[in-house]
Design brief:
This protein is α/β, with parallel strands linked by helices and 249 residues long. It contains eight helices and seven strands.
Length: 249
């Protein structure tokens, strides 16, 4: 029960990393707002978690949706302690010249602008409490980029660095900010990350670059997210934590 009585918002929580983070948070005693643009998916996850979770439809690139999410969470649970900015989007693994402008803009809106909007909405609440935790899900691509995901890597490098800068500015308010940097995992985006069909043979090409010899899993990321939100990490801020089996080494 490392998160007993904590209230958390997890974005992109209808599937993948976000869904598993929501499950682990509830298992550790937290109450969670399961936020996702996929409202039916969010409702299914929240229903499986019982009274400790609510589902909120949210397009994280829209200020009104973010503000409504935060207001709904505080109204329902009475407070807010932890925010996990997990929602993400990628372009298909391909030449940098083949990514159209609409895809580029959508990716930066979801991966980067969403954190700006969330920060505007939640920091006043956390400052008033003189305590809080923000976890931004970046990527190992933002630390060790490779050809094919240039613009995605750029967006996640922004997330990684933004988290460090936020930690410095919000430290005096006792608000901790950290980034998780996962390696590729079998989520709904895996085919786009690979730029090819998701087959055992194609996965093997990517796992060859991971010292521990496997892709990441949602559970790997969720366990790290529990640690960073818990009192075990109460002196940890500004960290860019790879959850990558050694890929970034």
């Amino acid at each position: 029960m490392r998160l007993k009585d904590q209230v958390a918002i997890v974005t992109g929580a209808a599937s993948g990393f976000g869904a598993e983070i929501a499950r682990r948070y509830v298992a550790e005693g937290a109450k969670v707002a399961v936020a996702d643009i996929n409202e039916e998916g969010a409702k299914a996850i929240a229903a499986s978690l019982g009274s400790s979770a609510i589902a909120v439809r949210c397009d994280v690139s829209k200020r009104a949706d973010i503000n409504s999410l935060v207001t709904t969470t505080v109204k329902h649970f009475g407070t807010l302690d932890v925010v996990v900015n997990n929602a993400g989007f990628t372009h298909k693994n391909s030449s940098m010249l083949d990514v159209d402008e609409e895809t580029f803009d959508r990716m930066f809106d979801i991966n980067v602008k969403s954190i700006y909007l969330m920060t505007q909405a939640v920091v006043p609440i956390l400052r008033a409490k003189k305590r809080g935790c923000i976890i931004n899900v970046g990527s190992v691509s933002g630390m060790r980029p490779r050809p094919g995901l240039v613009w995605y890597a750029a967006s996640k490098a922004a997330v990684n660095l933004m988290s460090k800068a936020m930690a410095v500015e919000l430290g005096p308010d006792n608000i901790r900010v950290n980034a998780l940097a996962p390696v590729m995992a079998p989520t709904g985006l895996i085919s786009a990350f690979m730029g090819m069909p998701d087959t055992p043979e194609n996965r093997a090409k990517f796992t060859a670059n991971i010292p521990l010899g496997r892709l990441g899993t949602p559970a790997d990321v969720a366990k790290a997210a529990v640690y960073l939100a818990s009192d075990d990490a109460d002196f940890i801020t500004g960290v860019e934590l790879p959850v990558d089996g050694g890929r970034a080494v």
